[in-house]
Amino acid sequence: MTDRQTELTLDPETREFAGQIADQVESFLLALRAIAGQADGGRAISLLLLEISQVLLAGARLGAQRDFTPIAEYQPDVGPEPDLDEMRLALAEMLGGVDTYSFVFDPYVPEVVESQLSDDLTSIATDLENGLRHYRLGNVSEALWWWQFSYVSSWGNLAGAALNALLSVVAHDRLDADLPVEEEERLAVADEMLDSRESGAR
């Protein structure tokens, strides 16, 4: 049986599930580009919090499924990766002082890592977009395998860390918690961003 014939034998439930994940992935990618293009830092924090939460739901659904396996030994060629550097730079400029954050990548090997939200969001988008290209070309099994594998190995962790960082910004704004001086200086920028968003909404 050829790879194409194997694809055609996928059960309807798997195909429907893949379609739902593809829709969520496409929605996230479109929203991320739109947020980067708006250059509205205060509004971006709330929107990114929403979009990352939604794409993590897709990841959790993938993680709860049986292990998907690709049909072919090597990934089919889906062409060059899209150039997301312009989006990354726009996100970095928009997020400014809250772009850099720290997190623990593996809680069982607690080493603190410093990263940038703009870099991590772009990395998440790259992983998700690769699976979407497989899906659009009819490589449904490959798309599901890639989304699931990259969720467990990479983008799921990054999305969780980014979500926590953005939630920390919002929590500081709402709760005005006491923080170390360095953290206060960093999140003062976030306060200004969120204040400008609220002023614009009135």
Radius of gyration: 19 Å
Major sheet: size, sense and barrel closure? 2 strands, antiparallel
Give the terminus-to-terminus CA distance.
Answer: 63 Å
Percent helix range: over 70%
Uncertain segments are: none
Order of helices and strands: HHHHEEHHH
The rough form would be described as globular
Spatial sequence of strands, sheet with the most strands: 1-2
| Structure class | mainly alpha
What is the strand tally? 2
Q: What would the average pLDDT be, to the nearest integer?
A: 84
Helix count equals 7
How much of the sequence lies in strands comes to under 5%
Question: Can you offer a commentary on this structure?
Answer:
There is one protein chain. With about 200 residues, the protein is mainly alpha-helical. Helix content is about 70%, strand content about 5%. The protein is built from seven helices and two strands. It has helices at about 5-10, 10-40, 40-65, 85-95, 115-135, 140-175, 180-200, and strands at about 100-105, 110-115. Strands 1-2 form a two-stranded antiparallel sheet. Helix 2 runs antiparallel to helix 5 (about 115-135). The protein starts with a helix and ends with a helix. The relative contact order is 0.17. The mean pLDDT is about 85.
Can you summarize this structure?
By secondary structure, this protein is mainly alpha-helical.
